[in-house]
Design brief:
The chain is built from eleven helices and 60 strands. By secondary structure, it is mainly β. 1-methylethyl 1-thio-beta-D-galactopyranoside binds near residues 77, 394, 434 and 470.
Length: about 950
């Protein structure tokens, strides 16, 4: 059968550019008749015009049938969900038959049937005549409909097989989602043009290939013939300044409209340049995804993606791992994003069998691979936003890559070629890697990376710019380490930046589970929640990781010195005139002064006025916002901020990041002695303790449990998918025992304990020292590691619970969002409030989340009472309506059910976040190593 052939298609017309044409076209989207069969060997009599499909279902086009009640989605990352035996596919091969009747408008003759995307194989009939078949799911195919169209009623029939030989080429890390998932059109447009618009120092050179005459009215170009370049004064296109010129090409039968951007991409001395200036990608990897529609993404959602990227200072997108819907690239042209356009090609699963029979190195697949590359380049060649072609992703190495690259270079010498999967870079123009560590990126930046064995290849690669086509795996809580990568990207000219993996969680809407991931549809082979690794939650709410990325990618940076702020412009292609700058002074989180700053267009040092003094912490926050509406955000949108803590009495400014030991020092928490209550409980100030265990049971009349030492966190994905969780569990850090060695009374209460897991000889000597004075209760915890600790700790702090009514939190510290040692760059010191529910970050796979960092004090309040906790100087605060053990057990958000307690963690420290789910773990400086530690809190009633 031709579903098991190396041939990519039959009967298709030569690929051409996606163009807007005034030629008539008929939108064939909408409800189609649909029937699903469990295998491919079904009679094809349904293609006959007179076939009775009245018993069939209806299915919208575009869509994926498993998202409309026919079969189910399935997720695998690397693994093929079928035996590897190319070009053969399983007999269980879901096969969708589609029928659509349409009326041809009066006077219509000729035309093409265009399919923008069908997964994975489609055979097409018009009025019972077979037009051919196509593969290449995320690529367009056109068939000549002309000879078979007839006046009035026409019947289009399409048979789609989920599995075909082409499935071996489409092993991307995503849901397998068959169906006609992009537009179907009957068009009388046949035009193809290739516009060349380069830019050099104020001058643009314009030419084009193809029939017709080109007009760019705004530039006074009228009726330009193909192959006759003109040079003109123009404004360049860049992602920061997406200047487009409306153009049209008039042909005999139609006029096509294009939007031209003048820009030149080049590589000079190993540096990637756009229009002669360094090009630094602040990128993300974008899969097409919508939680209800899969890869059939509505136009408004595509637009939302681009707007969200722009608003979070993202300037580049890699279309991982296939060409997106053509409209997406129009949006990138219009709103400004640099694009790496990737061919629809991945054969990752062959890696699991030692790359045996990998299509990439097998001449029988050459035509299929070349076909994919041609269709990518031909479709997208006119987009100024597309600055690089990528041959594919994770497809190993082999001869066919060279064939694809050679064709591409010949067809479009203006764009560099990218492919990451061959370390020796024989076919490409840029050196690309994924998930390289900070140390390795630095070595590459300095040009001192490990050499390749082949000296010629090594010399070639050493002369290339470097980019990370994937880095900072944004799975669950995280990614950590973003700022440190950015620092390297900005330091070394060879480094052209990178693309965070990935834009959005692919969680499918599920009636019971909230959002589904691998295994939730009963797939026998799947990769769990590895598909939930985005900067956006499935509903497109930004995660804390995206907010951090916005901060790290910000195009303006602030540095503070005594009485001044210096402002650096990090735009590559514009100055600061589009921004308005302002400053806000807060004392203990209360506004004390606000003023505007006049900043020179190129940046520089700006003097600050004399600022009010005050007793509390004085924090100055400087903001850069859009001065005017831009196409992607309104005036007032915050682009960047900086924060610094001011010294008192005209003293110099301090570094904004350091903890402050003069904050919130406990006052008055000493002097009182322990007394015994009639029931035998110990009473110290506002605290009541059990006499045997020395544990606090009532605090200012509130029923409390704890606080006591806690080391466990609900494993985050970076713990789960690395070795950390396994090692921590083996050590037993989730099941600590607390042995009470002494409860000593007198001036205060001292409780001496040894905290340790069963079955090991390591532990911690933990001493709780309680003191009381006035209405303040103080607690100092001394932690002394005992034995030979080899593992870092997930967290170090105390945990307590309060009645459920304490459901509001106000704090002075970093906020409003969560922060961990290597994340939370987006947070700033201030006074914040939230309900306990609002403190939760809804990671699709439940895991540790929601810590507020550097908290000086926090008030937990209910309708009737409140408790104030202060640190010395600061602590990490986590509060939730379920325990850490509940969070640890949960696999989907609906598993988390509020109980009758609020669970509070007051932490001295946590282990860093890193990106070990895929890539490097926590940097050594963010590891939490067991060490003697003392931390102090004071408690007071409100
Ligand atoms: C890398 C893939 O390119 C990407 O598609 C995704 O699967 C990512 O990993 C993990 O989420 S490949 C991996 C072997 C580094």
């Amino acid at each position: 059968m031709d579903i098991e052939t190396f041939t990519p298609g039959s009967g298709r017309l030569a690929p051409r550019a996606a163009l807007r044409s005034d030629a008539p076209s008929l939108d064939l989207n909408g409800p189609w008749r649909f029937r699903l069969s469990p295998h491919a060997r079904v009679a094809d009599d349904f293609a006959a015009p007179g076939y009775d499909d009245s018993g069939w279902d209806e299915l919208p086009v575009p869509s994926h049938w498993p998202l409309h009640g026919h079969g189910a989605p399935a997720y695998t990352n690397v693994s093929y969900p079928f035996p590897i035996d190319p070009p053969h596919v399983p007999s269980e091969n879901p096969t969708g038959d589609y029928r659509r009747v349409f009326d041809l408008p009066e006077g219509w003759t000729g035309g093409r049937l265009r399919f923008d995307g069908v997964e994975s194989y489609a055979k097409v009939w018009l009025n019972g005549h077979e037009l051919g078949f196509t593969t290449g799911s995320r690529l367009p195919a056109e068939f000549d409909a002309g000879p078979w169209l007839r006046p009035g009623r026409n019947v289009l029939a399409v048979r789609v097989h989920q599995w075909s030989a082409a499935s071996y080429l489409e092993d991307q890390d995503m849901w397998w989602l068959p169906g006609i998932f992009r537009d179907v059109t009957l068009t009388r447009s046949a035009a193809d043009v290739f516009v060349h618009a380069s830019y050099d120092d104020g001058r643009g050179t314009l030419s084009f290939d193809g029939p017709g005459l080109l007009t760019v009215a705004e530039l006074g170009v009228t009726g330009l013939a193909p192959g006759t370049p003109v040079t003109l004064d123009v404004e360049p296109w860049t992602a920061e300044t997406p200047r487009l010129y409306d153009a049209e090409v008039r042909l005999d039968d139609e006029t096509v409209r294009l939007r031209i951007g003048f820009r030149t991409i080049s590589i000079v001395d190993g540096v990637l340049l756009a229009n002669g200036r360094p090009l630094l990608f602040k990128g993300v990897n974008r899969h097409e995804f919508h939680p209800d529609h899969g890869r059939a993404v509505p136009y408004e959602t595509m637009r939302e993606d681009v707007l969200l990227m722009k608003r979070h200072n993202v300037n580049a997108v890699r279309t991982s791992h296939y060409p997106p819907h053509p409209d997406f690239l129009d949006l990138c042209d219009e709103l400004g994003l640099w694009v790496i356009d990737e061919c629809d090609l991945e054969t990752h699963g062959f890696g699991q069998v030692g790359w045996r029979a990998n299509p990439i190195d097998d001449p029988r697949w050459e035509e299929a691979l070349l076909d994919r590359m041609r269709r990518t380049v031909e479709r997208d060649k006119n987009h100024p936003s597309v600055v690089m072609w990528s041959l594919g992703n994770e497809a190993g190495t082999g001869r066919n890559l060279a064939v694809m690259a050679a064709w591409t270079r010949e067809r479009d010498p203006s764009r560099p070629i990218h492919y990451e999967g061959d370390l020796s870079c024989p076919d490409v123009d840029v050196y690309s890697r994924m998930y390289a560590s900070h140390a390795e990126v630095e070595a590459i930046g300095r040009g001192v990376e490990e050499p390749l064995d082949d000296p010629a290849l090594d010399a070639r690669r050493r002369a290339m710019p470097f980019l990370q086509c994937e880095y900072a795996h944004a799975m669950g809580n995280g990614p950590g380490g973003l700022a440190e990568y950015q620092e390297l990207f900005e330091r070394y000219p060879r480094l052209a930046g990178g693309f965070v993996w990935e834009w959005i969680d692919h969680g499918l809407t599920h009636p019971v589970l909230g959002h589904a991931y691998g295994g939730d549809y009963g797939e026998p082979v799947h990769d769990g929640n590895f598909v939930i690794d985005g900067l956006l939650f499935p509903d497109r709410t930004p995660s804390p990781g995206l907010l951090d990325l916005k901060k790290v990618y910000e195009p303006v940076r602030f540095a503070f010195s005594a009485g001044a702020v210096s402002i650096t412009c990090l735009y590559g292609f514009r100055d600061l005139t589009g921004l308005a700058f302002s400053a806000l002074l807060e004392i203990d989180g209360e506004e004390a002064a606000a003023f505007a700053l006049e900043v020179p267009a190129g940046g520089g040092e700006v003097k600050l006025p004399d600022l009010p003094e005050g007793d509390g912490e004085r924090w100055l926050t400087v903001r850069a916002v859009l001065a005017r509406d831009e196409a992607w955000a309104p005036a007032g949108h915050e682009v960047a901020f900086g924060q610094v803590r001011l010294g008192t009495g005209g003293a110099p400014y301090h570094d904004g990041g350091a903890p402050y030991h003069d904050a919130a020092r406990p006052v008055g928490a000493e002097g009182a002695s322990v007394t015994a209550a009639p029931g035998g409980e110990l009473v110290l100030g506002g605290g009541v303790f059990d006499p045997v265990g020395g544990r606090l049971t009532r605090l200012f009349g509130i029923d409390v449990e704890g606080p006591r030492l806690e080391l466990w966190r609900a494993p985050i994905d970076n713990d789960r998918y690395s070795d950390a969780e396994r090692r921590w569990r083996r050590l037993g850090l989730h099941r600590l025992t607390h042995r009470v060695d002494a409860v000593e009374t007198g001036d205060g209460l001292v409780v001496r304990t040894r905290v340790a897991p069963a079955a090991t000889d390591v532990g911690l000597h933990v001493t709780y020292r309680w003191s009381a004075g006035g209405d303040v209760l103080g607690l100092t915890v001394d932690v002394e590691p005992d034995g030979d600790w080899t593992e870092p700790l997930p967290r170090l702090g105390v945990a307590l619970t309060l009645p459920a009514a304490f459901d509001r939190v106000t704090w002075f510290g970093r906020g409003p969002g969560e922060a961990y040692p290597d994340t939370g760059m987006a947070t700033r010191v201030g006074r914040w409030s939230a309900t306990v529910d609002e403190l939760q970050t809804p990671y699709v796979y439940p895991q540790e989340n929601g810590q507020r960092a550097d908290v000086r004090w926090a008030e937990l309040t209910g309708p009737a009472a409140g408790l104030r906790v202060a640190g010395d100087p600061v602590f990490g605060l986590t509060a939730r309506r379920w325990s850490t053990a509940d969070l640890d057990r949960a696999t989907h958000l609906p598993d988390l059910v509020p109980g009758d307690r609020v669970h509070v963690h007051l932490d001295a420290a946590q282990h860093g976040i890193g990106t070990a789910a895929c890539g490097p773990g926590t940097l050594p400086r963010y590891e939490l190593r067991p060490a003697p530690t003392t931390f102090t809190f004071t408690f007071a009633p409100i």
